[in-house]
Amino acid sequence: MPLVIHNIYLNLRHINMQQEKKKFQPWLPLLFSLVLVAGILIGYQLRENTGQRFFQAGNRAPLQEVIDLIRMKYVDSVNTDTLADIAIHDILLKLDPHSIYIPPVELPEMNEDLQGNFQGVGVEFHIFQDTVNVVSVLEKGPSEKAGLQVGDQFIKVGDSVVAGNKITGNRIKNMLRGPGSSKIEVTILRNGKPMKFTIPRGIIPIPSVDAAYMIDQQTGFIRINKFSETTYEEFMQGLEDLQQKGMKQLILDLRGNGGGILSEAVDIADEFLDEDKLIVFTKGSHVPVINYECKRPGLFEQGKLTVLIDESSASASEILTGALQDWDRATIIGRRSFGKGLVQEQYTLNDGAALRLTVARYYTPSGRSIQKPYTGNDHYSNDIIERYEHGELVNADSNKIMNGKAFKTSKGRTVYGSGGIMPDVFVPFDTSTLSSTLADLYTSNTMSNFVYRYYIEHKSEFKTYNSAITFAENFSNEELVWNELVSFAASDSLNLGTLAPKEKLLAQRRLKALLARLPWRANGFYQVLNMKDVTVQKALEVMNGK
Prior knowledge:
Low-confidence stretches: 1-10, 17-24, 50-57
CATH architecture of the largest domain: Alpha-Beta Complex
Strand content: 15-25%
Radius of gyration: 32 Å
Distance between the termini: 83 Å
Mean pLDDT: 88
Oligomer: single chain
CATH class of the largest domain: Alpha Beta
Number of helices: 19
Number of domains: 5
């Protein structure tokens, strides 16, 4: 319609210019009126033919109508934004367990986890006796460059006192974080003396690779806790370092890894598989089938490979594991994985919230879906408990998907779909870890508080060990340290004297690993913990042919 009127207007203007001698045409206003009427008639015809209602709002959905009526008419004051969030949540529950609504306030932190970094100063802290204590300083990070050390205690951040005033973890975290390159002044207490530091904030990585080290002269170990935007890069750094140290075989630990970004898992699978093998494909009602295949020569296509999984290994972990199992590239060790084979895409909403909506399903190279049934969310969320009650976590014969469709690997072995990845070698769950006293010790701050205090008091002793391994092999005060922990725990109403002998051994092993974590970080923690880890030991047996 606007184009028609515009063309008529140009023609009239042209006619008018051709008649320069006539200053005024009596019929010109009449002609403009006719053009206006014609435009209105044309617009009316377009509306009738297309069904469009210009300048008229569309009908509101019943959900919006109800919320608007509650806002305007309800007897009491109601936060209708909260009602809308509840309604959206309930709608998504009817779809599947993994489509979720993320309110604006929660979105930044959730995105940080997938991005693999945030802006901050690079310290890990623990609040002990109402004081913020530095328990780890990022290597080559802003705080280390500024001079902060493990054992420092924060007194002030800027002009705000943060000691002795019931400081919370979230509050101190928000104070330390901020825009990159901005600076923050802190006052810390070290050996009883206050000291001031100016720390420029920077990009702080959130590691997704917990550990990468050599277990023995030929065996490497890499543990991945999630798949974020930096996971492949972290993995490659670890893999290349281990190969330079002579690695011939690898243990890849995906236990407890709940998944993350699909492309990161695909890139890692590409390092283990040759040629143009299919890694995974996705399929949904409104999206085309997408095949993810190997694109380049891998760094570790040869050499023995074992993958460790458990009931908490999910999504991208299962994609990587399923591809390696289907192509008979790795031996899978542990217990049946979680069973999440649904693909989510994130959409930003107008108010800054986000919707992660399931749009497709994952399928392994053999064609099996790893998604377990999700009719009834209560059953779905209680699945792990039900596995324990049915004996699946402790009995190899129960660790099978009886109702799943059978598929074949590249070498003809039978594998099953519709319920996660079944391991090739089963390792039972250690039920001794379910002791209520042991659980309380792990979930409370008692053990971490004790470990920090002991380390600070014995720093000079730890400096005599040049690595976590030499510490683990030569530390001889285990029983003395345990007795100190028993006394310390008693002040928190934890009676560790009731632990069974096996439970005590488990607690002592974790205690020793936590002590190693302070000077040698996460790598040291897993170096010590894995020395007695039954699943890691089983992987070594499998690769060494024992």
